[in-house]
């Protein structure tokens, strides 16, 4: 009876956001407070069960999936303290970034850097070393000052770089393996606007000026459209200019979302439509533009489609040869343009950090992400294999020797080892 208020129905099913992984845990717990979390871990200890922690399920992987106990952090989402003078906040790990933005804005504060979406929980961001972009900005885990972690034995441990540093550095990119993150003390800054300048360049022009472009703004990222060989360059800087949101309903919503999605859906039956979807998406963003808005609105991009996605981190110095090899792969092996990624490939950058399992450990890093519309591959998953081959064959050569590489990737890319 003691667990009744925090237990989901026994037939509850968990799926990640893109519905690429689904599982049916033995029990799903939704604790309302930290004491409930302690009870759940004690029950698991007595029953000999493993507990997996899940937030909103936005990971494209099956990291949270289990057939034993699952703990959802949905209700552990409170802001505990706000220190506006020191620009620090303490929040529960289950708070989503959207919720955090709203709360910080009320106090004239904002997060230092962000990724492309804000649907995830803060603890999920921290334990996976998720990142935004900016060659002088670390992964988002570097914004963490301290944490309180609930260990498997039920003990609560405060950790930071000065106190229990090993636990701290193992947890900030530990994939949940060290314990449940209850509270997070986060460094923030005063609210600010970002001015984003967008321009289109050819692939060759972008690579020829790569270092200059990467260092030309605080937050630079590229969107590469393989269908047209165009690079959309996004350069964002802090500014005191008044807000000037860009875009229009017709181009951004009707054409950029509904029409593109229709073409992607038709591509299930008429694969030439995939090419047209890529060409349309490229054309819609081909003109130079700029906007000024709240920082989190500029950091984030629309992520409306269910999708298959993969992202690889490579040393910054290997960006140019890796992208050239990827482009060569498109032109030589994926001769049919219908096989090429129809979504733009997102290219971002981050500064070195000291986090043990972080892909940016002691190195400047480039992140290359490939996204494919999920419905295109429903019932015919073999069509997704070329994207797996792209990832493994083109990136395996340039990733660090001590990086984790899946057995699938090793099997596909054995001739490149």
TrEMBL record:
> By its UniProt entry, which Pfam families does this protein fall under?
ALO (PF04030), FAD_binding_4 (PF01565)
User: Which keywords does this chain's UniProt record carry?
Assistant: Oxidoreductase
Domain of life the protein comes from:
Eukaryota
What molecular function terms (GO) are annotated for this protein? D-arabinono-1,4-lactone oxidase activity; FAD binding
Single GO cellular component term? membrane
Q: What class of enzyme is it?
A: oxidoreductase
Span of domain FAD-binding PCMH-type: 21-191
What SUPFAM superfamilies does this protein's entry cite? Answer: FAD-binding/transporter-associated domain-like (SSF56176)
InterPro entries in the record, alphabetically?
A: ALO_C, FAD-bd_PCMH, FAD-bd_PCMH-like_sf, FAD-bd_PCMH_sub1, FAD-bd_PCMH_sub2, FAD_lactone_oxidase-like, Oxid_FAD_bind_N
Q: In which pathway does it act?
A: Cofactor biosynthesis; D-erythroascorbate biosynthesis; dehydro-D-arabinono-1,4-lactone from D-arabinose: step 2/2
EC code(s) of this entry: 1.1.3.37
Asked if the keyword Oxidoreductase belongs to this entry, the reply reads yes
Q: Which PANTHER family match?
A: D-ARABINONO-1,4-LACTONE OXIDASE, L-GULONOLACTONE OXIDASE
- What protein is this chain from? D-arabinono-1,4-lactone oxidase
Which organism's genome codes for this protein? Lentinula edodes (Shiitake mushroom)
Q: What is the lineage of its organism?
A: Eukaryota, Fungi, Dikarya, Basidiomycota, Agaricomycotina
